Amino acid sequence: MYTSDSDVGVDFRTLNSYLSVLTNTYIVKFVPPYYTKRHNEIKKS
Predict the structure, then answer these.
(1) Which DSSP category does 36 fall into?
(2) Where does the chain show beta strands of DSSP type E?
(3) What is the radius of gyration, based on Cα positions, of the chain?
(4) 5: how many CB neighbours lie within 10 A of its CB?
(5) How far apart are CA 9 and CA 11, in angstroms?
(6) Per-residue pLDDT tens digits for 1-45
(7) What is the pTM of this model?
(8) Angle 31-27-38 (CA atoms, 0-180°, nearest 5)?
(9) CA-CA-CA-CA torsion for 16, 19, 25, 29, nearest 10 degrees?
(10) What is the dihedral of CA 29, 20, 35, 37, to 10 degrees?
């Protein structure tokens, strides 16, 4: 489920900054999707 920054109540740049810090400190790792099309990924999971 995807939410926008307005749903969370935090600015996009702030969220991006937080995620950058977490990624650089190896707390979070972004994993690329298996499928390139979101429809196929949802359909086959």
Answers:
(1) S
(2) none
(3) 14
(4) 13
(5) 7
(6) 456 666 778 888 888 899 999 999 999 898 877 767 766 666 655
(7) 0.56
(8) 20
(9) -130
(10) 160
